[in-house]
Structures are given as C-alpha cells and as structure tokens.
Amino acid sequence: MYELTVNNVSKSFAKKVALNNVSLKVRKGSIFGLIGPNGAGKSTLTSILATLTLPNEGTVEISNLDVVSKVNKVRKKVGVTFQQTTVFSTGTAWENLWIAGKMYGMSTTKIMERGEHLLKEFDLFQASNDLVDTYSGGMKRKLDIAISLLHTPDILLLDEPTAGLDPESRTTLWQIVTKISQDEGTTIFVTTHYLEELNHLATEIALINNGKILDIGTPKELINKLAADQIEIHYRKLDLANIHKIEAYISNLKEIVRHEIKPTVLTIMTSHGQQILSELLKYLIQSNVEIKFSELKQATLNDVYLANFNEKEAEL
Ligand SMILES: Nc1ncnc2c1ncn2[C@@H]1O[C@H](COP(=O)(O)OP(=O)(O)O)[C@@H](O)[C@H]1O
Ligand SMILES: [Mg+2]
C-alpha cells in the first residue's frame, strides 16, 4: 500500500540539524509534495531517499526495502532529478540517454525502446539528435526527468523540478509527469515552494521547516484547517430587528469561525466558503433581504504556506 515509509529520520551536518525526527508515508501511485522554505531540509531528505546520503537515525523503506542495507535493489526502484541539471550539454539527448541506460545496465534494445517512448512523452523526440546546449531550460529539465525514468522506477523523486521555469513550462511538465504516473503507476515524491501547482495535483502534502514536519494532509485538509475563506455580502440597509434575526441564524452555523454583521455588509471567515455562501444567500433572500453583491475569497495553499512559515520564521 505504501511505496515509501520514512520513520523517525534525523540527519545533522557538523552542528547543523538538517532533519529532526521526520516520519511520513507515501502511498503507491500517489503524488506526494514536500513543501518548505530554503534550508528546511527538503534536499537532504530527497538525497537520503535516493540512497545518496545516509541518515544518522531512523529508517527509510522504498518498496519495503531498507535504503541503507538494500542500496543496490533500492536504486533500481528509484529515479531522481535534482534541481541542478545532470545532463551533458555537449551531447545530444540520445547520447545522454545512452550513457544513463548503460549505467543502469540496460540492453541496447531496451534503451532504444524506452528512450524513444520517453522522448515522445516529453515532446523531445524531434530535438533528440540536437546538442543539449541548444535546449531551453524547460527542455533540459524535461530531459533530466526523462533520464530518471529510463529504468522504469517505481518511485520518482523530484527536488524542485519546476524552479526557474516559466509558468507555461511548469504546467507542461506537470501534465507529462502526471500522465506517466497514471500510465505506469509511478509514485511521485516532489519538493517545491510553488505551492499552488500542487493544489490539484498532490494527493498529500507535508509541510517542513527547520528539519521538522509541521503538518501532513491533503491540500483540502490543510486549507480547511486554516478556516480562512472570506465571505462578504453587501445588501440594502437592514433594520435592527433583521440584524438580530440574521445574527441568531449565523450563530447557529458551526463552520463559521468569525463574523461581523453591519447594517449594509456581512463579513464571515469560514472553512467552507462556497457552502456557507450559498446557504446564507438562500436564507437572506428568503428573509427578503435585498442583496447588492457578494464576494468569496477562498483560502489557497499559499495561505497555508504563509500561515505556517512566515509566523514560524518570525519566531526565530
Ligand atoms: N552537505 C552539507 N553540509 C553542511 N550543511 C548542509 C549540507 N547539506 C545541507 N546542509 C544544511 O542543512 C539544512 C537543510 O538543507 P537542505 O536540505 O538543502 O534544505 P532545502 O533543500 O529545504 O533548501 C540547511 O541549513 C543546509 O545549510
Ligand atoms: Mg533544496
């Protein structure tokens, strides 16, 4: 059921604690996002999962194999792309795939077959005999990821894959990666600080800061926890009796965390913006309140980020 389990992992460099008792589980075939500011420990964890760094404490299992004692088996199951590109810019895409394939111990036929399939998926086939030096940043990143998928890994680790890419390349990259994950059942573990791109993509998200996991949940759970959807309803001036009546109605709604009712405007903070807005509008119309307009500002993953990281950074 789980492709990856991280149990109480800690890692220090000299006196610097990079990871502090990190635990998380990633379901097979899911897209898991690890989010946090610079220095949070994202790359250190990715590097441990990729068997390139050893943890000081704790254990990691990939496909039920311990990453420290079963390193060779684990490497066959893992593909990794770090933020720094690892492609040779003096070679073509094919030459890069070739070298990687031989390092994975793949046969020539297999490299050709899988390479062609991936080059086509990543829309690089036409440029596959051009020097990588002539590629755009987005194309290089796509080639990096294609190479890390060459040996058909069970889990793909992506460390800030979209950093420095323009919005269009980011969207394209995600479309391709999601398709491959769906087609091949590949589990995706991704670190990023572009949160919004994970909103409709990630099955689960972990928030990390100073090497510690702050929270884990689906994007919706994390957003709902903030209860930061904001509703404003403007109406023709109410009399006092109506204000009291509406006040009584609102006080009975569980999901509302804060509200303020004025003669011409009602403001509300809630975890369920859309649902509360439509209930309220229905109620107000039934109560013959003349609505002028309403606004709903739904909380986003960016609000989750600001709530978790800005305050925490301010505490330091
Ligand atoms: N090889 C290293 N030597 C010393 N300190 C390191 C090393 N790698 C990472 N660190 C430190 O560990 C912390 C976590 O770094 P990192 O995992 O790169 O964070 P992130 O990827 O979230 O930006 C940082 O304070 C960083 O300076
Ligand atoms: Mg990093």
UniProtKB/TrEMBL annotation:
SMART domains: AAA. InterPro entries: AAA+_ATPase, ABC_transporter-like_ATP-bd, ABC_transporter-like_CS, ABC_transporter_ATP-binding, P-loop_NTPase. One of its GO terms (molecular function) is ATP binding. The keyword ATP-binding applies. The keyword RNA-binding does not apply. Residues 4-235 form the ABC transporter domain. Coiled coil: none annotated. SUPFAM superfamilies: P-loop containing nucleoside triphosphate hydrolases. Keywords: ATP-binding, Nucleotide-binding, Transport. Belongs to the ABC transporter superfamily. This is ATP-binding cassette domain-containing protein.
